[in-house]
Structures are given as structure tokens and as C-alpha cells.
Amino acid sequence: MQVVSCAARGDGAGVTEAVEAGASVDWIDREGWAALHHAAASNKTEIVNLLLAYSADLNVRSMAHGEEGATPLHLAACIGNTAVMRLLLESGADAETLDRRGKTAVHWAALQGKLESLKVLQDYNCNLRAQVNGRGTALHYAAAFGDMEVVEWLAERGVDVTGKDKNGRLAKDVAKRNGHRHIHHFLKEETKRQPSLSRKKSSSNARKPDLADHTSAPLPIPLPRTIFEKNVTSWEEAPIREATRGSPANSNSAIASKKKGWIIRSMSVGNKAGLKLQMGEMKKEMRDMENTLRAKDVQIARLQGDIFTTELEKVQIENQLKEMRTVSGRGTGSPGQQRDPYTKEPSDNVCSSRETPPQERTALLLKLQDVKARLKKEERDRGDERYVSDLKIASLTSELEEATQKLKKYGVRQKKLLSKNKSFEVDLTTARVPSGLPDLGDTGAMNSTVQCLYGVAALRNYLTTDAYRRDVASRGEVTEALAGVFKALKAGVQPEILAKRQHLQQVVESLEEVPRDDHRHDAFKVLTLLLTWLHRDLCQADGTSVVSQLFFGSHEHNVTCRWTGADVSRVTEDFLVIYLDVTADKEISLQSLLAHHYQPVSNEYECPHCLRSHLCRKQISVTHLPPILIIHLARKDKRVNVTFPSSRFMVHEVIKCDSPSFELFGAVTLQTKGLANSRQHTAFCRNLPDSTWYFYENERVHDVNTRRVLDQPNTNILFFSAEVNK
């Protein structure tokens, strides 16, 4: 396991240490990848070299769900890591290895439009014309992806444009189905240009891979992938579903068997995600270009200043020349004027000075010519700079617009396809009775927690509209899983709800940081784990997330010396839940518990003012209350009833803080049933459109009145909203 984690980080020393300590170099981690998969996917050639030196299996299979037993070469070709590809091929990797769908590295490269990967594979004599077990050629994949350059390159190298998949579709049909009209037109014209006989001959002579050698070999069984999903789905069997990045295909979906055929789905290296990545790179290049242009504008401004200075110098020189011509005319005099014989002849110095003006004029004329030449050069340089910059901006703008239009087409096509399935049009806001969640044997702790979190409108809309995707800072496995459950609840499709709920359970069990039995049956621990993981997944550079904005409040712990009154310590910390101990032996109100919790207490501290340990006064005060206030009632005696309001909960009247009134919208209770006193968590949630309260016990859902919610004797968790939760 250490080998894989070190390889993923690029830690060569760690890899060496782990292997020499006896670790297997081909160990498969929880994600389904070996160390060589991680190194190949992240383009770490040094780690690849190191692993090969320790005799790593070049053709080790991925056991990740959706990757169909891909080898490191398949992943490198799909991502475009050509340096790793050459290293693997030179070390003896089988370029014609098939995955479980029958795809070679050529098909993986074409699937993502990686022309450089295809060129590398051609250099190593890979079969560009291979067919995927009757499912089409690399040209079909390239046509589906929509890269004209790759399509043209494959067609030029003899890949049959008339080859059909098992459904009888040509590559041009695939391009048209995916909205690539320009590629459809090109392939249509290419089909007309190629003689039929030549095409048949080329097709019959094309070398075919020996499928028997590969399909007869036993392949590892894929494991569910929970942490790092790269969902590579073939076009024939891709279910019509919401195009969400990295969401696993679900065979239990109510719509999994409909609308099959040549629709490329988004994945971590997939079509839509690739377009978004391409757009992001182009936008970054545009920003860099704008910064460069600003620098060039400064340079052009300097050139303009130089031009202005040069023009001034030119005017000054022309004025000097004009003055010299005037002085020269005066010194020469009229032609008929005779010299006075008694006038003393000027000295040699005077004569020399009268001969100087023509020399000065010549020098000034030469200087003027030089200034004019420099002026023209500066103007020409300025024009060239602007011309090149304008061309670059126009090119980038055109590429960005084209990518934006592609992305819009994918979005429109997905909406049209999804709209044909009416089950996705059901919404809890319009449904008469909300959906329950299946019982997976955890006493309802997870189900009741998820139902209450689903009642937080801001969080529900954030996850169901995919707004969270722009904020996911880590791999986001918990966020993806919870968003899947929320979307299934919104759709109201029971098979989809079951599948998404099972996936969430798998993710939680794979990431649990405490023993399973310690938290599976405790709704409070499930709640804190879920919100902590969500915050970790969505945390931005400034430390904030939608979780911190909705659920985080802040406390100030102030300890003062009882003798001097000086501060011993003052600490501010965030809180997710207000934890209240219920120690009373009779019925007590929530307001009384809060007031008692925030009362000052005396504890012994090491006082820096008195230089000794003594009793000091500790005061906890609230500096900020979140929009969603969660209160946990920790009971020692389950029979003690705690009363709480359903609306107009004035927290500021109980403790000193600036806060609005709060309304109750959710509650989790712990009930005991049967002779064995088995525990069962249930939830009460308020449906916002009509303010109706519903009782949730796993799949069972029915409406109740407000009084039943308030009369529950074993309420554990209360959810309050600072305003009407719409």
C-alpha cells in the first residue's frame, strides 16, 4: 500500500524504501490502481523508471470500476503522456493488449482525441485499423470525441471510413449523432472519394489483433471504485443519465437500459470535462495574453514617446538648417558689391568660420536622415507588435468561442435526452409525499441525518444543480455520493435512490476514521462526519466552504484571573454543533439548557499574573451564530423530556449574541422498539412549500402535525434555520 501512495505522490525515495522492505510493487490499492497506473497517469517518468527497475508488471490491469481492466499504457495514451508511453513501449509493454471491451491503446487515445499519443503508437507499429470486437474502429471514437485533426490523421493513414459498428453505424453517423457536423461532412466526402474496391481491399488486408490470445486470458474482477473515479463508458452501453463528472454508471437505474448508442459521457478525462479543461486552459492563455499585451502597450507607449522625441529633434534640426541658410545668405552679400581696398582683410580665423556653415549643414542633414530612418523603424516595429498581438487575440477568441459552443451543444443534447424520461421531472417540491430511504441495517442513523440535511434548501440546491463542481478542491468522493442521493430523492425514482444510497454507504465505510460499530448507529457522529468530509472536499484557499458558511458558528473562550481581573487566555474557535448535556431529572426547556451551558464557571488554571495555579473564571460566549443552527441533546437518561419551540426561537434572549430568531425545520429522534429494546433513528422534516411536517422511518414516510414533533421524548438533534427555509 505504501508503494502505491508514494508512487502517487511522486516520492521515489518512499517507493525504494517500501519495495526494499518487502512491499509488492504490483499491489492494487483501494482505488483499483497499481503504483504503475498512478505514475503513468500523472506523467511521472522517474517513478515509472524506478518501478520498472523493480520488475513491475508492464501490463498490470486496473481493477477500478468503469476502466475495463486498463493497463498503464492505456491510461497514458488516454491522457496524452507520451514520454511515459515511449518508456513503457521501449521496456516491452504490449501495445496490442486489449481491455475487457476489446480496446487497444489506439482506441483509448482516439477516445480522448490524443493525436500525439496516436503518433507514438504508430511509431511502434501499432495497428491503427483494429476493430473493437465489432464495436467500431478508432475512427468511430475520434468522430464521437469531435477532434477534426485526429479524424483527418486517421483517415489519411488508411483507417476505413466505411467500417461499421455492430449496430451498422459508420463513423460519419457517429459524428452526426454527437453534433459534430463538420466531421460528418468531412467523412461523408471522404467516403465518396475512396473507391469501393480499394476500401474493401484495404479493409481485408488490415492486420487484425488476435482476440483469442487476449479474451481467453482470465481478467481480474473489477471492484467498486469509491475514491478516484474515472468512468470510461463505451458509446453503445452508456445510459442516458445526468452528465456529472466522475459519477459511476449504475445498472440498477430505472433508465439504465434506455437510449443506448454512441453518446460519449463525461469522465475525469472525458469529453465534456475535457472541453471544460480546454476552455480553462484557453481562458488562462487569454489572461496571460492580456497581461503580455499590457506590457506591450507600455512598450508601445515608450516607443510613442521615442517617436515624439525624435519628431521634436527633427523639427529642431530643420529650424537650425533654416537659420544657417539665412546666415549664409547674409554673409555672402550681393554679387556687385566691391571690396574697399582700405578695409582690413579678415583674419584666417574669420575666414574659417565663414567656411564652417556648409559643413554643419551637411552634418545636420545626415543627422536628419538618421532621425527619419529611426522614426520609420520605430513606427514599423510598433505596427508589427500590434499586428501580431491582434492576430493572437483573434485566434484565441475564436478557439474559445468554438469550445463554448461545443459545450453548449453537449448541454442541450443532454437536456433533450433526459427530458424524454419523465421520471426525472418529478420534484419533491411538487410531489405530494416525499421519498424515503432504504434500510441498510444501520438503525436509520444515516437515513435520518440525510433527510434533515436534504431539508437545508441552500445545501440541497447547491448539490442538485452541480454548483458544487466548481468548488471541489479534493477528489470529492463524499460530496459526489451525497449529491447523488440528493438528486435521486429529488427525482423520486426508487431504484435510483437505492443505488445512490448504497454508494454513499460504501464511500462512508471506505473513509471511516473510527471503528464501524462506533458510529454507524449514532446519528450525531454520522452528521459530524458527513459535514466534516463535505467541508474538506469543498474547502477553498481561504479556508471557507458552503458548509462553513451554512453551519459554522464561533465561540470565544475567555479565562480571567479572579484576583487581578486580567486575561489568562482568550481563544476563538469555530463550532459545528452546540453540544448540550441533559443532566436534569425532570422536564427542562431548551432555553434553560442553553443558559446553563453558557454560564461562567470556575476552573483551576496556571495563572501567568499570579505565577501560581488557582481558580480562574471561564466564560464561553457566542461571537457568531450560523444560518443553520444544529443543537445536539446528549442524554444520560433517555426518559427526560426537553421542550423546544417550533418557531420564533429567540436565542439572543437566552445568551448574549446578535442573532435573528430561528425556526425548527428538522429533528432526529432515537426510539426503542420491541422486547429487545432495539434502537431506531427516525426523522421529522418540514416540507417547505406547504409547511407540512413529515415523519421518516427509512422507507416509511407520512405526514404528522406539529404537536407530535414537539412531544417527542427522545429527540437527539435539532435543526433550526435563521429564516424561512425556502
Automatic annotation (TrEMBL):
ANK repeat intervals: 31-63, 68-100, 101-133, 134-166
Q: Does the keyword Transferase apply?
A: no
**SMART domains, from UniProt?**
ANK (SM00248)
Give the range the annotation lists for the signal sequence: none
Question: What superkingdom heads the lineage?
Answer: Eukaryota
Q: Quote the cellular component terms of the Gene Ontology held in the record.
A: BRCA1-A complex; BRCA1-BARD1 complex
Q: Which GO terms describe its biological process?
A: protein deubiquitination; protein K6-linked ubiquitination
Domain named USP is located at: 435-723
Which Pfam families does this one have? Answer: Ank (PF00023), Ank_2 (PF12796), UCH (PF00443)
- Coiled-coil stretches, from where to where? 272-306, 361-413
Ordered alphabetically, the record's keywords are: ANK repeat, Coiled coil, Repeat
Enumerate the GO terms in the molecular function aspect: cysteine-type deubiquitinase activity; ubiquitin-protein transferase activity
Q: Where is this region: Disordered?
A: 170-223, 323-360
Q: What is this protein called?
A: Ankyrin-2
Provenance organism: Chionoecetes opilio
